[in-house]
Design goal:
2 copies of one chain form a homodimer. Chain A has 7 helices and 12 strands. Chain A is an alpha+beta fold and about 270 residues long. Chain A has a single domain, classed as Jelly Rolls (Sandwich), CATH 2.60.120. In chain A, the strands form 3 sheets. Chain A has a 7-stranded antiparallel sheet. In chain A, β2 and β3 form a beta hairpin. In chain A, α3 runs antiparallel to α7. Chain A is globular, with a radius of gyration of 17 Å. The relative contact order of chain A is 0.25. At the A-B interface, α6 of A face α6 of B. Chains A, B: One of its GO terms (molecular function) is 2-oxoglutarate-dependent dioxygenase activity. Chains A, B: InterPro entries: Phytyl_CoA_dOase-like. Chains A, B: This is Ectoine hydroxylase. Chains A, B: Its cofactor is Fe(2+).
């Protein structure tokens, strides 16, 4: 899996790439059916919503679940990440965002690199998310909103918001958002399960709450250039990993193989 | 202005009618430019958002502002209201919902008749909203969401929610919403300023918060059949009116005339 020159240009200009049906229905179904078993676990990696007992984010699942371990080694993630970041990569963060029907709360406007820099002392914005939709993402269930071209601004000043949701986030003020939107607008890629989105570490994004009866689970893998490893270990290891070993690409059927091994073991 | 038999049928089946560009740009601009003067007033009719000093809802503006008085007498509101409700009508409620950029909070899933019944002892669901978009309404600035056909269920059991927002509302539980959405889906009419939406008093609706930099002001006029006047006066008069005088239709240029009178007086 190699990105074309046109795709590289679009990523450079707009800050993201969207691929409907990037993973097969079979692969996506394997990922989806693995999640309930993850969410039901009482472990510190599972951050719950303010409103109650619903999982907002499950971190570091690839460290204990072979299905998600296979996903982070998927060549359709590893190879584009290396291409876009110009280096071999390691996993800085892995998360499944639940955005549960009715309960899924807002993600305020932010840059991911804002947090990686402020909390983890990541030298440069040479890390990024490669994400896969587990559910259909539509206008009603809290889709991601991006401000195209905003990644060109580098690291934007942000304020640590500890109160709005259950998860602390470095958020960007309204005046800055208004200016960025004037330049780039807002886009909200929607699509079926298996669609993928890659976005720059400084691309400003957020998402509204989920008031619909439909879950909106998305898996995010943050790849960081190995030459850009973090230098502060303030946050727990399961949120900002300290294992900088380069990630190898496995075979294209890595997720299917992991599922087969799992059923064989059961 | 008369609704066609097809429109009456659609309203009966779906519970709403949407009209892009229902009012002229000139009329809409008059309404829009009148709102800042309303919102800046410190009066009890102006309910502010929980988050701060931004107006969430301005009630009863037609009782003190001639521009909005003209709007409630507009034949493009009065005549369809009489047709749909099968009676002459009076104004049960008038409001401008600000849904301000960044600050506009959620409206939870509800039926308007739930409140009119529980709080105002309105005998039947023979009241409805005729609303006009003052701003462009898009997927990002907190558009209205409707569950088509849900009006057929009559008054649905609801719970008085006094905490979620600054405005108390009789809201419907998640299980019921999930069932209704399975039957009718969710629709979200979007359009430019001047677009109008008419919806049944028992049509279930809500709207997400406005995280965008764009205001989303909508004016709602609630017409009630004169034979269906409320019987309890628990809520303030400016929220649930007690003047049951039938509303006459003025001429089609009523808003333009009111604006001309206003400039002449200035």
């Amino acid at each position: 899996m190699k990105l074309t020159p046109e795709q590289l240009k679009q990523f450079d200009e707009e800050g993201y790439l969207f691929f409907p049906n990037y993973f097969s229905p079979e692969e996506t179904q394997i990922l989806k059916s693995e999640i309930p078993g993850v969410f039901q676990q009482r472990r510190e990696e599972n951050v719950r919503e303010k409103s109650g007992d619903v999982v907002r984010t499950a971190f570091a699942v690839h460290t204990y679940d072979p299905i998600f371990e296979a996903l982070v080694h998927h060549p359709r993630f590893v190879e584009p990440a290396e291409q876009l970041l110009g280096d071999r990569t390691y996993i800085h963060q892995f998360k499944i965002n639940g955005k549960a029907a009715f309960d899924g709360d807002v993600w305020q406007w932010h840059q991911d690199y804002g947090t990686w820099k402020a909390d983890d002392d990541m030298p440069e914005a040479r890390a990024m998310n490669l994400a896969v939709f587990v559910d259909d993402v539509n206008e009603f269930n809290g889709p991601l909103w991006f401000i195209p071209k905003s990644h060109k601004k580098g690291a934007i000043e942000a304020k640590h918001d500890l109160t709005t949701t259950s998860y602390p986030l470095w958020v960007i003020d309204n005046d800055t958002i208004a200016k960025l939107v004037k330049q780039g607008g807002i886009v909200s890629p929607k699509g079926g399960p298996g669609s993928a989105i890659f976005f720059h570490g400084t691309l400003v994004h957020g998402s509204p709450p989920n008031m619909s009866p439909w879950n909106r689970q998305i898996i995010y893998v943050t790849y960081n250039a190995v030459s850009n490893a973090i230098r502060r270990f303030k946050r727990p290891d399961y949120i900002a990993h300290r294992d900088f070993t380069p990630i190898d690409a496995w075979s294209d059927d890595a997720v299917l193989q992991a599922a087969r091994r799992k059923s064989a073991a059961e």
